[in-house]
Write a structure and sequence with these properties.
425 residues, mainly alpha, two-stranded antiparallel ribbon, two-stranded antiparallel sheet, 17 helices, 67% helix, globular, disordered N terminus
């Protein structure tokens, strides 16, 4: 056994107490394990073969650990910083969710493209669309498969059961969007399905926009106000993400960026490990799809309405839970950050570009749902930019809005000022 100098401090004893001390803060099972007696050690007896003086409990272990840590430091010995095993477990889960979804989608992508082309499930060119030849359009099915596979596997080692209602709403949107890709459903049918999916999240999953976090002096919202506000906002988010899907890689690239931001907030605040898994599973599922969509020639496939509607539900869930979470609210409020302004900043380009286009259509006496080429990505294309450059420019604009909000909030701008800044940006 290795020992330190004249004091005879055993390395194994120190590490045993250290590990038990850290584990004792995690669960009742670990607390019980930490209360077990040590056969040898500086806290339970001598290390020179003398019998132990008794078991070491959790409190005694904590006190003894601090005392002997000070003794070792006075002798010039360096003690490694404590290891957060729980944080390591979370990090491993998150990385696993990303990798599983990425590998699954990367493996299945060429097979789905071949099936779509064989069955003629393709998006054909027309006067309004930018592609010049038919492109497979089952990307939403593939992305959904990667997300579900990743969350299902990780549910074996981490509790993701709270995502059941979210997955049900995603399935409704996947079915609606895929049918629309193939059969061209009526807009009214799509709206009914979207409202039904959002209501499922509200009444079965207890999701909602029910807190403004002190914005204009308003905190909690009554249910009679929160429910219609949630339906209006979430249906708007779903359709906004659907409408920006006009350039290669734009919708998938945006969802990758937004999922990374929301996922980081969920993990940093400790509010929901399940939503963190969902966020990074979404990132993993979208990365190979994005690469094929932007850089692929024969392997290009559109995410389609099935995919954009699914992503709209996912983004809506992230927004609702961000607004509802007490941990996120505390994390933001203590730093002078507005939760509402944050969610608007992350979704700024899809939301505000859709509002701008619809307002312009109504000013021209047209229906707000009349298709045209006035979206931001259409304007960049008309300026002579390629699809890749257009996608980069739009995503950069969205990232700059988030950065502008963060800088203004850190400079002490009020929550109301943060909302106005994001809206006008």
């Amino acid at each position: 056994m290795s020992e330190f100098g004249a004091g005879n401090f055993a390395v194994s004893d120190i590490m045993t107490i250290f590990v038990r001390f850290r584990m004792a803060e995690r669960s009742p099972v670990c607390r019980a394990a930490a209360a077990l007696p040590l056969r040898r050690g500086v806290f339970g007896g001598k290390t020179d073969g003398a019998p132990s003086q008794g078991p070491v409990t959790l409190e005694a272990g904590r006190m003894g650990f601090r005392q002997d840590r000070r003794k070792l430091l006075t002798r010039g010995l360096k003690i490694p910083p404590p290891i957060d095993f729980f944080a390591m477990h979370k990090t491993l889960l998150i990385l696993s969710s990303l990798v599983i979804a990425l590998v699954a989608v990367g493996f299945m992508h060429p097979h789905i493209v071949r099936i779509a082309k064989l069955k003629q499930i393709v998006d054909k060119p027309n006067a309004r669309k930018l592609q010049k030849e038919p492109v497979a359009i089952l990307g939403g099915v593939l992305v959904f498969f990667g997300i579900i596979l990743s969350t299902a596997i990780l549910d074996m080692v981490g509790d993701c059961s709270s995502l059941f209602v979210v997955i049900a709403a995603m399935m409704i949107m996947l079915y609606t969007g895929t049918m629309d890709d193939i059969l061209n459903l009526r807009p009214s049918t799509r709206f009914v399905s979207q409202i039904f999916a959002v209501c499922l999240l509200i009444f079965a999953g207890d999701y909602g926009l029910d807190n403004l976090h002190g914005l204009w002096g308003v905190w909690g919202l009554p249910r009679a106000v929160a429910v219609p506000l949630t339906i209006f906002a979430c249906v708007g988010i779903i359709n906004a993400l659907n409408l920006i899907d006009g350039v290669d890689g734009l919708s998938s690239g945006f969802c990758i960026m937004a999922s990374l931001i929301f996922g980081t907030v969920f993990l940093r605040s400790g509010s929901s490990l399940a939503l963190g898994v969902l966020a990074f599973s979404t990132v993993g599922a979208l990365i190979p799809f994005f690469m094929h969509n932007v850089f692929g020639l024969r392997s290009k496939m559109y995410i389609g309405d099935g995919g954009t509607l699914v992503m709209g539900v996912v983004m809506s869930v992230f927004v609702m839970r961000t607004v509802q979470s007490a941990q996120i609210g505390q994390l933001f409020d203590t730093r002078g950050l507005s939760v509402v302004a944050f969610t608007l900043a992350v979704l700024s380009i899809p939301v505000f570009d859709t509002v701008r286009v619809m307002c312009m259509r109504m000013l021209r006496g047209q229906s707000p749902f009349h298709p045209d080429k006035t979206h931001l990505h259409h304007l960049f294309i008309e300026m002579g930019n390629s699809h890749i450059v257009t996608t980069f420019l739009v995503l950069t604009c969205n990232a700059l809005v988030v950065l502008l909000w963060a800088c203004a909030a850190c400079r002490g701008l009020s929550p109301e000022g943060q909302v106005w800044l994001v809206t006008l940006a």
